[in-house]
Amino acid sequence: MAVIDASVVVEFVAPDADDAEATQLLFDRWVQTGEALHAPAMLPLEAMNALLTGVRRQRWDGEAADAASSLVAALPITLHDDGRDRHSAWELARRYDNHPIYDMVYVALAQRLGEPLVTVDDKLCRRLAPLGLVLRPEQALEARH
Length: 145
Description:
- The chain is of the alpha/beta class and 145 residues long.
- The chain has one domain (2-143): Rossmann fold.
- It has helices spanning 6-13, 21-33, 43-56, 62-74, 83-95, 101-113, 122-127, 137-143; strands at residues 2-4, 37-40, 77-80, 117-118, 134-135.
- Strand 4, helix 7 and strand 5 (134-135) form a beta-alpha-beta unit.
- The protein starts with a strand and ends with a helix.
């Protein structure tokens, strides 16, 4: 089981996803092993917003973003909406330098489930390194060998 955030989903589905080898390998492994993936309920909205931002910044075109958005909707992710996670996220955000609450909801869910959070957010990884809970895709690949 793993908790994933919107950054790793976007890196997987983005039209230029070929550049994200570790993330691609990790999702391939998750599919092969039937890994249960979990995320806060806001993940699809965050991922779709990132895809829309990519269109606005001319990183990819609208048609490619539409296809990627459809992939987001089809991913087998169990979505959670739990007040305990919001409360824990607030506490984490306050403890860790007022880091954005929406990032900390992912961390709170990972803590509650006792599973790692996989992200490509370097700032989040650095800030929460002491927890030993937040992994980049490369680290998640190594951890499961």
